[in-house]
Structures are given as structure tokens and as C-alpha cells.
Amino acid sequence: MSYQTSFHILVLDKLSVEVERLLQLLKDSGYKVTHTADSQEALRLCLASAPDLIIVNIDERDRENIDFFRQAKSHFSTRSTPIIITTEAADHRKRVEYIEMGADDLVLKPYYPEEVVARVGNIFQDYKSPLISKTVERGFVGNLGEMDLIDLIQTMELGGKSGVIHLNRGDKEGQVYIYKGKIVDAVVEDYNSVERAFLHMLTWINGTFYVIFQDVAVNKPLTDNNQELFDEATKIIDQWRKVTGDLPSLHTQLVAVSDKPAHSLDYQEKQMLAAFKEPRTILQAIDHSEYDDIAGLKIIKSLLEMGLLIEQEVSYSEEKNKASLSHLNGLGPRRFKNKYSHIFAIFQRNKKGRDELTPPRTSVAGAAAEMQQIVAPKNKIHNRIRLTKAELLLIRQKLGA
Amino acid sequence: MSFLSIQKDTHRIGEFIVAGPSLTLQKRFITHLCNEVIITNNNTVFGRSKVTDELQLFFYGIGEKEQYVDFAWDLLAPKMLGYILVFNWYDGNEFSSAQQLLDELSSQIDCHGIVVGDVSEMSLPIDPKIYEQGFSFSPKLYFTLWDSTIKSDAKNVLKILVDSLINHFE
Questions:
Q1: B68 lies in a domain?
Q2: Nearest chain B CA: its distance from A215 CA (Å)
Q3: Nearest CA distance, A385 vs chain B (angstrom)
Q4: CATH code for the domain in which residue A112 is found
Q5: pLDDT of A283-308, one tens digit each?
Q6: N or C: which end of chain A has fewer CB within 10 A?
Q7: Which of A85, A395, A396, A397 should we substitute to test contact with B (largest number of B Cβ atoms within 10 Å)?
Q8: Among A242-251, A367-376, B2-11, which is the least confidently predicted range?
Q9: Do A336 and B10 lie within an 8 Å CB cutoff?
Q10: Is residue A190 domain-shared with residue A104, that is, in the same domain?
Q11: What is the pTM of this model?
């Protein structure tokens, strides 16, 4: 399942050639799309299925959609759902008013449907940002090392809560949907079945999570009895810990040894070996393997024992990246200690969650001095600009020419 | 639901951090821009400026006391629109402190910001070597000089920062 298919877009507008083209383009882009021309129906759909984004057409002569927009912005379950307004309103004051009322974007009609799709993409891009604290008005964030998926589900089950658990491990992300403490859906990229996605995420014992309490569309629960699932999950996690205990760090880069004969290998081993034709980490290999995680790890272990996989030497520049982060951990050479150093202790918490993005490397002696000058850009916090362009223009106007 | 209550729900806020080695300059910058300024007993400064009934700007001067500064960054850094780093252009120590702070900020957070050297208090000439290293700027960072005694200068500083945010959309 692609990432985009987990996004549901509700379009409230009368059907026209333009709207039909938009609906088709959104579907082609992988979004789940629901269309209605009736604002009451739209409201019902919002409450029933909690769309990830709403596109609503506002016609000044027709107040119904404006009322829908206001209701959507005031109801707790849809208040934080991004809304794009399409309108023919020529008056710029009216357009600014819509934005002030909470629209995330505004598109003038007639529009190019491609433009609307691009704007939808931009909004979701912001929501995919690794900076997750923006979304946790009614939830919490944390580290999977301290609280794993089972702990999280048990917590929600105890309170009979509904919401979405978002998990991140390395460059992968997944969601588990909980309705009144019961698991109703699980989504991970490349995993087509709910069960497989859920089992895969059980082994994410390193990484980050954030939980949003919200209404969740009710599907059939994955199981009527969470306890059975927890028992099974505990076995899987124990197995995972056991197998990983026999392996180097999952961030270790391995590469296939090309001059060793591999003809005695079975099909699975050959396939896994081929995955290491170019150096990659163990985690990357199992994430992209067609086998379940534990089976994948066992194959890698066997290939390592046969000497067909070896640890990859890291380049000097990679090592510099690691050193650049070491001052944050307090483990390696510190960049400098000044009166502002304390400020950046706050980033450690954020960085801790992002460690998965930067695999640890083996050491290279003698590089420490130069290492201190380098900073890994991909670990930066990226701020989303939380005002719209129209609002910024208003500020600019207030400040004067 | 009445329209008034909806308005209340849809208040929009743009937040800026005003940082730097001198709390006095932080206060001065915020006071020039805001019609409502609160100085807390933790030596942090908070200023509010109304743009429209629905849109306000908040400015946080985050002071010097370590425990509060730490807490303030924790809360504000992820949601701010950008930061304004103010320092006394003629004070070598403040120049170096601003350099260090900018380096740290640039390495940790990718957002818009402006470095502002106050030229209102010319003192004894300082060693030019202090300036040699300069500042390292990413494309989202700007530099300007200002006179902290002139109110309109603070507006000009904010204009540069807001323009850079607007350009981000283009």
C-alpha cells in the first residue's frame, strides 16, 4: 500500500467537468476520494470517516457550504483537518476572510485541477514532516524503546480510547488505528494486509511514536480479544530480540562478498544475498525483503556465518557525520561549551527519536578535529510555516511599505 | 453556534523568538513592535501585536536564565515562524556570542531567521579580527543592522523576515 492511499480526501462541490477531472486526478495520485454535492451528507461523512483533507467549494450565493466549513472548523474531530477552499469570489477581502476563518489554502475558480492536486500534496507534505509535535494537541509522543506498540495499545485499551498510533522506524512509517481500545486497522507502506502490517510493526522496538486521540472509522476489529494478540506479539518480540542479539547492530552496513561461491545456497538465501550487492544496513534489507522480519534476519545471520556477507568499511565523510552528532549525545568530542549549550539539550529528545535516520558508523581514528566542523543536515528540525501566504501578506501590509 | 464563537475558535497566531546575548536588546525590539508587552519575573519578555481581529503576532524574548531559556526553546522552537537574533554590533563579546548561537541554531533547526546588529551604541573601536570569521548563513537567514533606539527600524527588521517567509511560498 502506498503512503498516499492512507489519505482520504472529501470533496464537497457540485459535479462539473472541472470537478470530475479533479476527482480523477486525485484518484490517479493514489488518494482515496469521496465526493458529494450535499453539505449535510459531507458533514455526516466527516463524522463517520474522518477524512484527512477536505476540499470545499464556497459560493457566496449558497450559504450551505459556508455553514459546513464553519461546522467542520468548530467540531473537535475535524477542527484540525486541513481544508482547501475553492471559490469564484473575486473580492480579495472575502478571500482573506476565508483564510482567517481557518482555511489552509484557497484556490480561485476556474482552476487547473493539477494545481489543486499539487496543493493537496503540499499540505500532506507538511503533515508528513518528521516534526511531530505540531499534531499532538490531544495525544502524546515518545520513544518506542521506552514504550512499544503493545504498551501503547494496552494503554488505549485501558482507557477505551480511539485514535491513531503513528510509528516511525528509520525511513518507514506506519499507523495503527484503534477504536475504543480495539485494533481496527494497520497500515505500513508495501504491506497489503492489515495483519502483516501489524506484525511487522510489532518488531519496531526502536524508533518513535506519536498518538492522536480522534474519532476513527469503525471497521471490523482485528481481534475481539486483544489479550490473545498481546500473547502472540510478546512471542514475536522475544523471538526478534533473540535473533537480533546474535547479529551486529541493525544499522551495520553489510555487503556481499563477490569472490565466494554461492551455488550451494537455497533460493531465499540467494535472493537475500543479491539484496546486498550494494552495501546496505541490515534494517534496510529486512524492510525491503519479501520475507517476514524474523525469517529475513535468520537468513542474514546464516549468510554472515558462511562468510558471504561482510561488514562494510565506512567512508571518511560518513564518519564525519557521526562525529558531528556526537556532541549532542555527550559521547564524543564536544564542539564547544558556551553559554548557549544548555539550549540545545532540548534537541536531544528530538534527536533521540531520529537516531534511526542516521545509522551509527564504525570509528575512524584521527578524524576528530575535522569531524567537529560537520553537521548532518538531515537531522535538522524543519519548521513548517504555520501561517498562510495571505496572512503573511496582511502582516507585511501592517508593517507598512 | 454563533459567529462570534467561531471567530474565537479560528484565531490565528504567528510566533517569533527574539534571541541574543542581551536581554535589554530583546526587550527593546519587542517593545517597539508590540502594543502589549509583559516582562515576567523570569526575565523573559512576551509581546503581542494585533494584525487583525483574527490574526496576532506573538514575540518571545527568551531571556538569559538558563533553566527558562531551555524550557522556552523546547516549547517554541517547533512552532515559531522564525527567529530574530539581536546583538550589539560594537561589542566584540556579543558578536562572538551571536556567532556561536547562530552556528548552533543553524545546525539544529531549519527555519527562517534574521541576525540583527544594533549600531546605536558606538563604543571604543574593537579588534577587527573579531569580525573576520563573520557569520555562516543558509538561504533562509538574513543579516541587517538596526538602530535599537528607532522604533521604525524594528519594523524594517521584521519586514525583511516576513518577506523571506512570503518568498518561501513563491
A1: yes
A2: 20
A3: 6
A4: 3.40.50.2300
A5: 778 777 777 778 888 888 888 888 88
A6: C
A7: A395
A8: A367-376
A9: no
A10: no
A11: 0.38
